Amino acid sequence: MKIDKSTGEILRDKREEKGLLLRQVAAKLDIDTAILSKIERSERKATKEQIIKLAEILDLKEDDLLVQYLSEKILYEIKDEELGQKALKVAEQRMKFINKKNS
Amino acid sequence: MKIDKSTGEILRDKREEKGLLLRQVAAKLDIDTAILSKIERSERKATKEQIIKLAEILDLKEDDLLVQYLSEKILYEIKDEELGQKALKVAEQRMKFINKKNS
DNA sequence: TCTAATTTGACTAATTTTGTCAAATGAAAT
DNA sequence: ATTTCATTTGACAAAATTAGTCAAATTAGA
Predict the structure, then answer these.
(1) Among candidates B39, B42, B14, B9, which has minimal Cα distance to B26?
(2) How far apart are CA B57 and CA B17, in angstroms?
(3) Is B99 near chain A, with CB under 8 Å?
(4) What integer pLDDT is reported at residue B99 of this predicted model?
(5) Chains A, B: CB pairs < 8 Å
(6) Would you say B50 and B56 are in contact if contact means Cβ atoms under 8 Å apart?
């Protein structure tokens, strides 16, 4: 899993690698070019549906891209929080606890 | 850190322990009783400001309550996600990476 | 059973997110 | 240098989500 690249960077790199224009990919996503530009520069978040379509369009592994995307959503929640690191750890513990309970 | 109790349960337990009514606490928070009732039963999320006030009103350690609250917000983001667990782990790695970079 | 506390659900208000559009900027090619 | 096309920017609108009120229904204790 790439930990040193933002979702946006991954998307831009792959799009350019495939020689596609923002315009072309945006058309397939049915959104304005401006939004895709912003997504690639991490100025906007994509929606989950857009991520799924992008994986398809750019031949990226859907699950990997989704994990990347979700982890970014999580980090976004705590980005300005002093206690973010602690909260993440506690969230993991609670997640384990919940999973244990449901088995 | 309590891992087996929701924020709502913590709040309700402490409020009852102190013999306060929903009405009284809600008044201090400047919201309708109905909302506090829903927060305590995890039907609604509190805002960060409400959590801070509640820690004060109920004599709970602010940081602990905030960590509890933030971890719940994180879990909420991934509650319906198959890949939630993986995303959490990746978020932690990325968090570490970001912290390393900024030091 | 009376009374006060809590819960429920329908509704409104406020905020955030997602999107469009047009103008500005940048980059490549003559 | 000028043209042309891709990308970026920012102001704005639409849509969705979140936060709140209110009143009626339910629950719990004396």
Answers:
(1) B39
(2) 13
(3) yes
(4) 86
(5) 100
(6) no
Q: Give the number of domains in chain A.
A: 1
pLDDT tens-digit profile of B34-86?
999 999 999 999 999 999 999 999 999 999 999 999 999 999 999 999 999 99
Give chain A's count of helices (H) and strands (E). 6, 0
Contact positions of strand D to protein Cβ (< 7 A): 6-11, 18-23
Reduced to 3 states (helix: H, G, I; strand: E, B; else coil), residue B6 is coil
**Cα(B13)–Cα(B20) distance, rounded to whole angstroms?**
10
Q: How far is A5 from chain B (nearest CA, A)?
A: 9
Nearest CA distance, A38 vs chain B (angstrom): 21
Gyration radius of chain A over CA positions: 16
CATH number, domain of A47, equals: 1.10.260.40
Task: Report the alpha-carbon distance of residue A60 to residue A69 in Å, rounded.
Answer: 13
Sign of CA dihedral B89, B95, B97, B100: negative
Taking each continuous run of H as one helix and of E as one strand, the counts in chain B are: 6, 0
Q: Which range of residues forms the domain containing residue A59?
A: 7-101
